[in-house]
Amino acid sequence: MLAFQEYKKTPERHMQDEIELPDSYVLLNCRLIDGISDESRDKMWISVAEGKISRIGSMDALGSESSGRRIDVEGRTVMPGLIDCHVHLVYGGFRNMEDAIRCPVETAVINASLHAWIMLQAGYTAVREVGCIGNTSVAVRDAIRQGKIQGPRVVASGRPIGTTGGPADILPPHWESTGGRLVVDGVEGFRKAIRRQIKEGVDNIKILASGVEVNPTCWTWMTTISQEELSAAVEEAHRWGKTVAIHAQSYDSVKFALRAGADTIEHGTRLDDESIAMLKASPSILVPTLCTLYSVLELGATLNLGQKQREEMATNESLWVESIRSAHRAGVSIAAGGDIGNRYKHGTNARELELLTKIGMTPMEAIHAATSTAARVLRMADQIGSLDEGRFADLLVVDGDPTEDLAILQDKTKLKLVIKEGQVVAGTASPHRGGGGWLTKKA
Ligand SMILES: [Zn+2]
């Protein structure tokens, strides 16, 4: 409901009508954060042609680089569009899982479309969706691709797959568990569920390998799948060319997932030396979702969340923080994912970057976690997540320096332009709102 009111009163939704950029243009005087380098670079220019970055250079060597309009961004930061590796498009405004799974698919589609639009306004030009109701995320992904609605690029997982009694199995025993999630058992059960998801058009498979705090009977320290099931599931998904994200909050579930060859470990609440060494030695990427933890700790009372959920997160806090801190210290690849849609609202995804600095990341490392490393998770590192020639021009023009103050990325008034594939899709630099003098000035 809140989100809808926000939608009605937010004028940026017409931004695409207000600011139209030509097919080719050059942004001048940029402070460039390229998504890969450790330092930002001042006094740079970046040229865009037909939706892609065509060239990047220093202002000293601008020369005749003017194939198109010149726009002086006056020293503002230009950086890759942000990427969230762990979002739920359909959730939002639900107090618990019971409420969420009662949501009809029709409502879920509307929620997902709205949330996709809100995240784009917040500077997120790509997301990996890791669990929805019905086949919503595939439909929303395709509608965005076709230009029917506005939103980030979506890598879709569809329904999460888990075992009987596991986190996916949330309905009371006397109800038949269908619809929202796929509850299966045994090697053949997992193979069939994965093939079914592939038939529905997903890009990634989400498997639940441990308990979750929102399930009333299944705790995060429990491992809810066998090694045999998980290895077969990952093998099946990989054979079809799909990546696999594994919800793993128990010690064993992380090891099972890594032995199976998982592409990403979601949450990683309980890591020991052995699993950190395994992570370090594997190509798997850790997606810690610290927002999952802090959203319960912060909003537990306000939202009147369940007692089990709150107690469990209170127990998990020190384990979770220490696990991720140790993994970072050991040099494990970490990507940002906010688990947004559970308790924190869509559009607050950049909160995760701030939380990553609490476990020891520098602001620049946190930015990399939400740009180039996140693009690796989406298997799109050659297309997005860094500023380089030939990449899509998914860019943010930001007031201030996020490496000095990461909170800037959560302040929509500082997001002057959100550019997706070369075109302005959001931002507050509208000339109609008295903010875009620099945008219309002849450079
Ligand atoms: Zn999640």
From TrEMBL:
CDD domains: Met_dep_hydrolase_A (cd01299)
Superkingdom of the organism of origin: Bacteria
Gene3D superfamilies reported for this sequence: Metal-dependent hydrolases (3.20.20.140), Urease, subunit C, domain 1 (2.30.40.10)
InterPro entries tied to this protein: Amidohydro-rel, Metal-dep_hydrolase_composite, Metal_Hydrolase, Metallo-dep_Hydrolase, OTAase-like
Annotated Pfam families: Amidohydro_1
One Gene Ontology molecular-function label: hydrolase activity, acting on carbon-nitrogen (but not peptide) bonds
Ranges for domain Amidohydrolase-related: 77-425
Protein name: Amidohydrolase-related domain-containing protein
